[in-house]
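Q: I have 301 residues here and want to know how they pack in 3D. Can you give me a structure?
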Amino acid sequence: MRRLFVRYAGILGLVLGLSACSQTLPPPPSPFSGFDDTEASRPFAPTPSLAPDTRPNGEPTSGYEIDGEGFYGDLHLLEADGAVRVMYAHAVEGDVTLHAELRPESQWLHDGVRRFEGFDDAGGAVTVELEAGLCERAGRSYGRFAHIETEAGVYEGCATEIGPQPSWSDGLPRYLPMIQACLDQSQSSSMAFVRGAGRTQVLHVEQTGSNAVVRMRFGDSGRWDCVLESDQVRWSVVSPQAPARPGEADPVFILNAMPEAGEACAVYERVLDEEGEMLGALGYDACMSGAMARLGPGLRF
């Protein structure tokens, strides 16, 4: 139960009015440390220490690391008495570290963006917005854009997920060329017929060195694996009995579309490119099905 709590800490009681299913839940935070050598990208070493990166029992927390020009932030989700606390620490170069306790916005996803609001320890208002997309800083790619507002000013940066359980979607910046290679090849193969079955969805990407397997679904045609090896691309059907990969379809990346909340019993997070143009959406299961059905009762914000 502890492991599942961390994975889905932020999903209860936050999204309203999804008529596509009788019982609804908002999306999980998908904690994931998606890139190596985080320290190398920091412009300075913030002191004092930022938000706690472990719970009292020593397990790592879920959340986000934020890196920007002249500042660094940590946002952590902590369990306390069956509730989730969102703790944020904001370190500005040459200044004291600001600590704040935040809550997700009433509907958690505001116009396709993750939004947290609250107050720092001096009573000042703090807002943190995270938007999925291709954010770059100091030669490093991140899976989210970050926008922070405090009493001292407005800060822009990039964010990556942290936590004990990986989510494949935070690697989208490096996966997109692989996804595009699969789609390009499918236009000149027998997969062209399958692609016509409906909406294109990426369920998971697994990368090993220069090779990768992109698992996709086209409408209701079932699952397909696009295998990229040594500049070669080949497709294979995935048996309905084949088990899901860890994190598969949590979330689903929908290309070139932003569905309405509740469609397919999901909520959606917008994904942008470097210029702010929409690439698609991350869709999270909002009904009591799949992994969410294993959640126990009693967890709240």
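Q: Anything worth noting?
A: The chain has three helices and 15 strands. Residues 64 and 178 are 25 Å apart (CA to CA).
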